[in-house]
Automatic annotation (TrEMBL):
<keyword id="KW-0408">Iron</keyword>
<comment type="similarity">
    <text>Belongs to the cytochrome P450 family.</text>
</comment>
<keyword id="KW-0472">Membrane</keyword>
<keyword id="KW-0479">Metal-binding</keyword>
<dbReference type="InterPro" id="IPR002401">
    <property type="entry name" value="Cyt_P450_E_grp-I"/>
</dbReference>
<keyword id="KW-1133">Transmembrane helix</keyword>
<dbReference type="Pfam" id="PF00067">
    <property type="entry name" value="p450"/>
</dbReference>
<dbReference type="InterPro" id="IPR001128">
    <property type="entry name" value="Cyt_P450"/>
</dbReference>
<feature type="transmembrane region" description="Helical">
    <location>
        <begin position="6"/>
        <end position="21"/>
    </location>
</feature>
<dbReference type="InterPro" id="IPR050182">
    <property type="entry name" value="Cytochrome_P450_fam2"/>
</dbReference>
<protein>
    <recommendedName>
        <fullName>Cytochrome P450</fullName>
    </recommendedName>
</protein>
<dbReference type="InterPro" id="IPR036396">
    <property type="entry name" value="Cyt_P450_sf"/>
</dbReference>
<keyword id="KW-0812">Transmembrane</keyword>
Length: 206
């Protein structure tokens, strides 16, 4: 009985590890991480630095295995990002959906739809209803560029001391959205902006 149990356990482990390290067809190279845990334990405190190290080894486009058998493709330079989301944006229009996000958008919204009839109708609706507000007059790029000086000013105010970047970046991103949707921005310490950032954060953490 013991030998049979040991053999069965060995076989299951072998098959599990084999399929873990087996790379799907047409998937770029990349680290496989620890079986069943993926690269999560390897990311450490600074995931972006680890991704940069993997870029040196595997190139600007590589795959990583996260918890379970979920495969992620990482784009780690401007050219590959531009190629996917600008030059071939129709092919890369979709995004992975999370339960909290699905409850929020109910399968709608350009950012999370695959290219197709529904994407086209949503895009047409957006173009029609955004016409005449800030996004039509200035454009998204202009709204982003307008926010950059305020972000740099806040970064310089740290006077070279260590600080938590996530206490600043979400406010900057939220201000860009406010500029696009409402045609105005808020100071980083404004209560309204802080409330909006918290609401977005609460949705992400659900």
């Amino acid at each position: 009985m013991f030998d049979f149990t040991f053999a069965a356990l060995f076989l299951v482990t072998f098959v599990g590890v084999y399929y873990w390290y087996r790379r799907p067809k047409n998937v770029p190279p990349g680290p496989r991480g620890i079986p069943f845990l993926g690269v999560v334990p390897l990311l450490g405190k600074w995931p972006e630095r680890q991704c940069n190290e993997w870029k040196k080894k595997y190139g600007p486009v590589f795959s990583i295995r996260v918890l379970g058998r979920e495969e992620w493709i990482v784009l780690n330079d401007f050219e590959s990002i531009n190629q996917c989301f600008v030059k071939q944006s129709n092919k890369f229009s979709g995004r992975p959906l999370f339960e909290a996000l699905e409850k929020l958008i109910h399968g709608k919204g350009l950012s999370f739809l695959d290219y197709g009839p529904l994407w086209k109708s949503q895009r047409k609706f957006g173009q029609k209803n955004f016409r005449g507000i800030e996004i039509e007059r200035k454009g998204v790029d202009s709204c982003v560029n307008d926010e950059v000086p305020f972000l740099l000013e806040r970064l310089r105010a740290t006077d070279g001391k260590a600080f938590e970047i996530m206490s600043i970046l979400p406010k900057s991103s939220c201000n860009v959205l406010c500029s696009i949707i409402m045609g105005k921005r808020y100071e980083y310490d404004d209560d309204t902006l802080c409330t909006l950032v918290k609401l977005f954060s609460d949705v992400d953490n659900q």
